[in-house]
Amino acid sequence: MSALAHQRLLIVTGKGGVGKTTLSAALALGSARRGLKTLVCEINTKERVTTLLGRPEVGAEIGSLEENLWAVNVRPAEAMREYALMTLKFESIYNAVFGNRLVGYFLRFIPSLAEITMLGKILYHLREKRPDGSNRFDRIIIDAPATGHAITFLSVPQVVIDTVPPGPLANDATWMRDLLVDPKVTGTVLVSLPEELPVNETLELHDALTQRVKLATTAAVLNGFIAPRFTAADRATLPPEVADVARVHELRAQLSADAEARLSKIPAPLVKVPRLYTPAFSRQAIEAVEKAIAPLLDRSAP
Amino acid sequence: MNPIADAVKTHDVLITVGSGGVGKTTVAATLALRAAIEGKGSLVCTIDPAKRLANALGLEALGNAETPIPVSAYEKAGLKPGATMRAMMLDMKRSWDELIERRAPADKRDKILNNRFYQAMSSALAGSQEYIAMEKLWELRTQRDYPLIVLDTPPTAHALDFLDAPNRILDFLDNEAAKWLLTPALAAGKVGLKLFSFGSSYVAKTISRFTGAETLQELAGFMLAVSGLNEGFRERATETRALLAAKTTGFVLVTGPMPDRMDEAVFFHTLLRQNHLEVAALVVNRVHQPVPASQWAAAARLPDPVRRKMEQTLEESEALAAADARGIEKLREQCPGTPLIIVPRFEGDVHDLKALWETSKFLFG
To answer: pTM of the prediction?
Structure first.
C-alpha cells in the first residue's frame, strides 16, 4: 500500500512538459472517486485542469467540478487580499491600506510575499474545517511549477523564516513549513518521461527536495511508457519497408525500460502510465491516466 | 535563405524563448554549435536553474565561467569547429554578489552583502533571476567580443518576467513612491522611512500586523543601501532594453507540437510582436511524421500476429502525426509572417554533440 493514499497534501512537480497537469487532474479525479473531498490547485498559470476534466474554468475562486471535486487557480493578488482580510477582518481597512499606492509599491519588495500568500491560501484550506468539525477538504493536490521554480516556491516558508524577523508573517511561515515537511501530511509526486534529460532532472529534483527543502518523495510517475511489442523472431521476418518501424518502437521501449530502471533508485513507489494516442488531451485521457495510477490511490490492496 | 541560417549570420544576440519541455535548451546549444562549426565564435548561456545545457553538450557540469567545449567532444562527434564555442550556466547568487562588489561604493558593500533582504533576493527571490540574466547579457555583450551570444531563457511564465525585467527596474527607479519614501531619509543620512515618521503611522501599523515592524525597518535599510546604485541600474536597464530591440538581436521561439504548448507559443509570439521585438523564427520541435503509404502496404502483406502488431504501431504513429499536423496548421494561421521551422522527432534523445549537429541540419535546412 502506498504512503500517498493517506497523505492529505500532494505536490505534483517535474520537468516542464512531462505531464504534471494531466497527472494532477488524474490524482484529483481518483481521490474524489474514492470519496475524498478533493481540491486541485494550479499556481498562477493559464488554467488547464478544469478543461482537461471537461469542465468550465473556475478562476481564482474555488469552484465545484463534480461530486467531491473542487478546483482553483491560485493567483497572488486574490490570495493576498484573502490573507489580508483574514487578518484584518474588515474590508474597509483592507481597502484603505492595501489600496494605497505606496503600500502596494512597498509590499512588492518584501521577499517572496506573493509566493507565501499563495502557498498560505492552499495550506489554510488544508486546515479549514466544516461546521461539523470535519475537514473542508480531505485532500489537496497542488499542480506545482517545474523543477527549479518548484524548489523556489516550496522553499519560500523557510526563506521567510530565515529572512523576516519574528512577527506574524514569520509565525505563519513556520506553521506552513511544518506542514510541508511532515511526511504524514505531505508528499511530493515526481513526474518524468522516458527520455534521458527528464530522468536526469527527476533524480536531481528528488535530491534537492529531500535534502534542501526536506520534502518527502511519496511516488514517482513515469508518463508515456512504451512497452516492448516486437520479438526478435518478429523482427527477423520483417521486409525493409517496415523493419525500421519495429526497430524504432523497440528503441523507444528500451528507453522506457532504462528510465524505469534509473527512476527505481528513488525510494518511493514508481507507477508507469502507458503512452496515450488519444487525438487530444481531454477527459478521456485523464480517465485512462486515473486507471493507471490506481495502485497509488487505493488504501487497501485489491 | 533558411531563416535560422540567416539569423545566425546577421545577428550577434539570439534569445531562445518558449515553454518548458520543448527542447529550447537544445535549440540554443545547436545554434551556438552551428555558428562555431561555420567559423563564427559563440557563447551559449542558460539561465535555467535545471542543469540541462551541460547534459546536452555532454559536459559534466556548467558554472558561471564561460567554458570552451573540449576538443574531445568535437572529435567524438566527427566535427571540426571553425571557431570556439563556449558555454555557461548563470549562477544567480554569484552574479548578484559580483554586481554589488563591482558597483557598490566601498562603505556600502558589506552592508548590502550582509543584509538579510539582499541575501534572500539574490538567492531565492522569484523574479531576481530574470533581472540578473539581463545584467549578464548586457555584460557579455559590452565587455566581451563574442560574434554570437545565444541566451536560453526559463519557461514561458518566467521568460515573460525576463522580457519585462529591464522595464520593471526602470519602473522601480522612476517610481514617485520610491522617491517619496526614500528622499527624506537620504537627506537626513539615516535609516528611516517617511512611512514611520509621517502621519501615515496608521498605514505602517497595519502593514506591520502582517510583517512585524522590524521587517519594515530592515527593508528600509536595504532600500537605502542600494539607492546609491540607482543611477547605474537605470543606465544599464535602458541599454539592455535597447539591446533587446536592436536589429542584431533576434528571438527564436521554440514550441512542441502539443496543443497546450502551441497555445503558449501563440501567446508568446503576440507578446514579442507587441513589444516590437523581432521573432527570427518559430521552431516546432519533435514533430511526428505521417506514415508513408509503402509502410501500410508492406504491413498488410505480413502474416499474423506480426501484421496486427505492425498495424497497431503504424496507427499510433498516424494518430500522433495527425494531431501534430492539425496543431501546426493552427499555429501557422495564428502567427502570420513568422517563418515556421519543423524539426521531426528523432529516435532516442538529443544528449550529445553529434545529436546536436544532426538537429542543426533540420534547423538550418
So the answer is: 0.79
